[in-house]
Amino acid sequence: MSKIRKLLIAGNWKMHKGVRETENFLNELKESFDNDVFDKVDIAVCPPFVSLYTASIVLRGSKIYLGAQNVFYEKEGAFTGEISPSMLKEIEVKYVIVGHSERRKIIGETDETIAKKIKVIVEEGMIPIFCVGETLKEREKGIEEDVVERQLIRGLKFVQKQDDFVIAYEPVWAIGTGKTATPEIAGKIHGFIRSKLKEIFDEKKAFEIKILYGGSIKPENIQELISHPEIDGGLVGGASLKKDSFISIIKNSIRSLKYD
Ligand code: PGA
């Protein structure tokens, strides 16, 4: 099977790894891949803010990309505790996670603030990894597609056709629970997301956009997930924290690919 879109595997470290641990981890990680791996899969790590600059220095000259876990939607000003898009851009951040369910639920992030964040990220030339996904209750009610559609339409409100972005479908019931969506369950929603992207933008744009799956990805299930034509990679939480499991996920993700 060959993939239509280049794979992306991004590690979301959440609130793990301070400066020293980040430095050690990334110094080892960047030596762990042969060059041809990067032809098949884009690799990114998303450390917490305090470790981002160190990560940026360690990764300079390597092919591993840097991602942030959040950003504020204003460019500069009196916003105590916030980080602006240009600050991230300055240290060579490429991706920014937006709308993660933990931020929606625990921090109270709304579709409105998510839309504003996505706007400033693309304006700064970075790529949002925009997370959507339903809770277990919503799935049990059979309204998962309605939820995802609403999140998509509201979050992409300011996005133009020429803007680059990535969608991560992360069913809340699968995050950190050890319960992974099957490739069929994830693939069905990915297909639905792509059909909505077609309605919002057009067929070409919908075809180009990477849709990642996230939620209890492990070395043992990534290959099967990637085998689904609609799944273009993964946003990996817990299993990205250990070097061996993150490396195995990346290596297994390309195992089912065959290039002519
Ligand atoms: P998990 O987290 O892999 O630990 O389930 C995924 C995520 O929250 O992005």
Give a structural overview.
The mean pLDDT is 96. The chain has an eight-stranded parallel beta barrel with strand order 1-2-3-4-5-6-7-8, surrounded by five helices. The radius of gyration is 17 Å and the shape is globular. With 260 residues, the protein is of the alpha/beta class. The relative contact order is 0.16. Bound molecules: 2-phosphoglycolic acid. 2-phosphoglycolic acid binds next to β8.
Separation of the first and last Cα atoms: 10 Å
State the shape: globular
Bound compounds, each kind once, are: 2-phosphoglycolic acid
Over all CA atoms, what is the radius of gyration?
Answer: 17 Å
Element string (H = helix, E = strand):
EHHEHEHEHHEHHEHHEHEH
The amount of helix comes to: 40-55%
The biggest beta sheet, please?
Answer: 8 strands, parallel, barrel
Our count of helices gives: 12
Number of strands: 8
Strand percentage lies at 15-25%
Strand order of the largest sheet: 1-2-3-4-5-6-7-8
Estimate the mean pLDDT confidence.
Answer: 96
Low-confidence stretches: none
**How does the helix and strand content classify structurally?**
alpha/beta
Briefly, what is this?
This protein is α/β, with parallel strands linked by helices. It is 42% helix and 15% strand.
Short descriptors:
15% strand, binds 2-phosphoglycolic acid, eight-stranded parallel barrel, 260 residues, alpha/beta, single chain, 12 helices
